[in-house]
């Protein structure tokens, strides 16, 4: 379903993603883990066509997103690390707009919007502006929106960031349910190792742009001789605190963009 | 429902839902109209220029359309900041459609603002010499709005954050307004200023409105129309090009 081979992304002299290869099977939940600035978001941005790879290849449901960009985009949904909802529109209007952007026919759009808003417990608030929603509600709406066009692949970039345990638990329950009922392949990143351990079928660990391990959570624990995924993660990536601002990659990108005339 | 329509509608909804923006946007034109229209009116009249209010009204309407349309284009920065831009950029639709929807939406909002200010001008005492030509004035408003919404999108696509906003305001938007002949007649200016006003697209927009509303024009109504159509085409293409290059 997702095939990545020798993927590289550089910004000037900085290599954000360095020769990364992995595969994610249909219906699988794959957690892509790594410390801040390790290259997770850059990888997701390349997978979702927001960034062009420097080299290497990507295949999404058999399509090369560089060649068949719109066809590939139609096949995936994404929940970004930062909110991407229109705060000045209602929940319903956000779903409607997404449905139109993804060419979902009118009747199906209305039916599916109702279904998803009910499933994600937002139906009662469908006429309210998104800016009046709590963080958890916004996240749920983003995920519901991501499912609207029935994607084959769902990318979740740190979807539980800033959510309380209740909201996190509810969110993963929804994701697992849709994964099981609709056979949606899920590619996620998270800093919560317990979540990855609980939800993901397989995990990949990236550090300094390189993929340092991949396998089932159990296999990774066995491979590192640790009792938990968090311990395994620390063993693989070290316990040094990383740049919290994630500035290295971003700054290099900004620096590079200055010389490319505003291209980012 | 098409992509262009829903993005156009989004701009309109945002405008109609923000009463503060609606009221605030009237503040500056009203101030120019009252302070300059009435303040400088007697001097202008003594100099043989006639009613300054009559002269300045098309300029103030043009200014409203300029600010509103260019800011709607720069609204891209807002969407970049608050994340919505990403939602549109990963959608399986050509970016040209997204850009056109946004630009048309911004231009429509700008024309609505222009119409609102036209009403304010009429209340203040402005009287079009040829009221039947008001639809043509609307056409010029649309052209001004399209020119600057396109330019706004091009600039908004090139800037990374809101920090560049003040720079654009001080070194682009304000000069475009002040050098357009909105506040003073274009006849008898120093050569350098004549050259500058001739490359300012807003000069043709305001001149066109004066042509249809007051029956006098510096460049001539047809020239105004031709220049605005040409510049609008160039800025739309340029805006679309810059928009197609955005990476998040």
Task: Report on this structure.
Chain A is of the alpha/beta class. Chain A contains ten helices and nine strands. Chain A starts with a strand and ends in a 5-residue tail after the last helix. The C terminus of chain A is likely disordered. Helix content of chain B is 78%, strand content 0%. At the A-B interface, helix 2 and helix 3 of A face helix 1 and helix 5 of B.
User: Stretches of chain A where pLDDT falls below 50 for ≥5 residues?
Assistant: 244-249, 258-264
Shape of chain B: globular
In terms of DSSP E residues, the strand content of chain A is 15-25%
Structure summary, number of beta strands of chain B: 0
Label the structural class of chain B. Answer: mainly alpha
Q: In summary, what is this structure?
A:
The complex is a heterodimer of chains A (264) and B (248). Chain A is α/β, with parallel strands linked by helices and 264 residues long. Chain A has helices spanning 40-47, 69-75, 91-101, 106-119, 135-147, 165-182, 193-199, 217-224, 229-237, 247-259; strands at residues 2-11, 14-24, 29-33, 55-60, 76-79, 153-157, 185-189, 202-207, 210-215.
List the helices and strands and how they pair.
The complex is a heterodimer of chains A (264) and B (248).
Chain A lengths: L1 E10 L2 E11 L4 E5 L6 H8 L7 E6 L8 H7 E4 L11 H11 L4 H14 L15 H13 L5 E5 L7 H18 L2 E5 L3 H7 L2 E6 L2 E6 L1 H8 L4 H9 L9 H13 L5
Parallel strand pairs in A: 3-7, 3-8, 5-6, 6-7
Antiparallel strand pairs in A: 1-2, 1-4, 8-9
Helix pairs in contact in A: 3-4, 3-5, 4-5, 5-6, 8-9
Chain B lengths: L2 H15 L1 H21 L1 H6 L5 H30 L2 H6 L5 H30 L9 H25 L6 H14 L12 H9 L1 H14 L6 H24 L4
Helix pairs in contact in B: 1-6, 2-4, 2-6, 4-6, 4-7, 4-10, 6-7, 6-11, 7-10, 7-11, 10-11
């Amino acid at each position: 379903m997702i095939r990545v081979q020798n993927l590289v992304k550089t910004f000037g002299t900085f290599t954000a993603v360095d020769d990364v290869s992995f595969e994610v099977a249909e219906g699988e939940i794959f957690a892509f883990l790594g410390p801040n600035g390790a290259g997770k978001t850059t990888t997701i941005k390349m997978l979702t066509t927001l960034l062009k790879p420097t080299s290497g290849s990507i295949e999404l449901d058999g399509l090369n997103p560089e060649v068949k960009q719109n066809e590939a985009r139609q096949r995936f949904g994404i929940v970004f690390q930062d909110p991407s909802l229109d705060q000045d529109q209602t929940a319903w209007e956000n779903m409607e707009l997404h449905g139109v952007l993804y060419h979902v026919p009118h009747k199906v759009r209305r039916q599916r919007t109702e279904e998803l808003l009910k499933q994600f417990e937002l139906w009662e608030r469908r006429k309210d502006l998104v800016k009046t929603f709590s963080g958890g509600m916004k996240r749920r709406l983003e995920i519901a929106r991501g499912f609207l066009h029935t994607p084959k692949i769902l990318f979740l970039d740190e979807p539980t960031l800033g959510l309380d345990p209740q909201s996190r638990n509810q969110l993963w329950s929804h994701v697992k349910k849709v994964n099981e009922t609709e056979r949606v392949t899920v590619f996620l990143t998270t800093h919560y190792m317990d979540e990855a351990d609980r939800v993901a079928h397989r995990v990949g660990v990236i550090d300094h742009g390189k993929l340092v391990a991949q396998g089932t959570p159990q296999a990774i624990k066995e491979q590192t001789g640790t009792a938990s995924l968090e311990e395994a993660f620390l063993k693989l990536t070290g316990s040094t605190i990383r740049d919290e601002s994630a500035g290295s990659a971003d700054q290099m990108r900004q620096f590079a963009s200055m010389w490319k005339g505003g291209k980012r | 429902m098409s992509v262009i329509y829903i993005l156009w509608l989004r701009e309109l909804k945002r405008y109609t839902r923000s009463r503060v923006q609606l009221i605030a946007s009237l503040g500056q034109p009203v101030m120019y109209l009252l302070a300059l229209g009435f303040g400088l009116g007697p001097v202008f009249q003594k100099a043989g220029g006639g009613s300054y209010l009559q002269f300045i009204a098309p300029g103030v309407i043009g200014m409203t359309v300029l600010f509103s349309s260019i800011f709607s284009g720069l609204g891209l920065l807002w969407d970049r900041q608050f994340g919505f831009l990403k939602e549109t950029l990963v959608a399986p639709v050509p970016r040209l459609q997204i850009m056109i929807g946004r630009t048309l939406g911004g231009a429509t909002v700008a024309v609505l603002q222009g119409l609102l200010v036209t009403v304010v001008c009429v209340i203040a005492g402005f009287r079009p010499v040829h009221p039947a030509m008001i639809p043509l004035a609307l056409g010029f408003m649309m052209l001004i709005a399209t020119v600057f919404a396109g330019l706004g999108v091009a600039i908004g696509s090139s800037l990374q954050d809101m920090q560049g906003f003040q720079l654009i305001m001080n070194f682009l938007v304000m000069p475009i307004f002040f050098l357009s002949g909105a506040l003073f007649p274009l006849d008898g200016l120093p050569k350098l200023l004549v050259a500058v006003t001739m490359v300012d697209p807003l000069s043709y927009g305001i001149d066109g409105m004066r042509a249809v509303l007051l029956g006098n024009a510096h460049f001539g109504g047809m020239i105004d129309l031709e220049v605005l159509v040409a510049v609008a085409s160039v800025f739309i293409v340029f805006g679309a090009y810059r928009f197609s290059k955005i990476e998040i």
